[in-house]
Amino acid sequence: MDNSTILNQATNLPMYNFTPEDLIQYLYNETSTEKTAAIKAALRSDWSLREKMEMLSSAHQQLETMPLLSPRKQTIDNILNYAERSVEELSAHS
Fold first, then answer.
1. What is the span of the domain harbouring residue 55?
2. What b/e readout covers 55-84, taking b as 16+ CB neighbours within 10 angstroms?
């Protein structure tokens, strides 16, 4: 029996395996009330999860400080041309 199982039995908390996606949703305040409470409880008791959360938080802060750059005109043209060809192909098959 590992420490997290013992802790969950002692605190009567449900055991969760949080994915990186769960932690990102938590970071952006997009989790349900129940999942938010579970993540907060897990962060208090699980150093490994806390470490993962700290890495995600650090990356999030770095992304927030980076300037946004516009894509090159050629990139936008390529996307629009691809979309136009896709629409034409769908119209031709209808």
1. 3-68
2. eeeeeeeeeeeeeeeeeeeeeeeeeeeeee
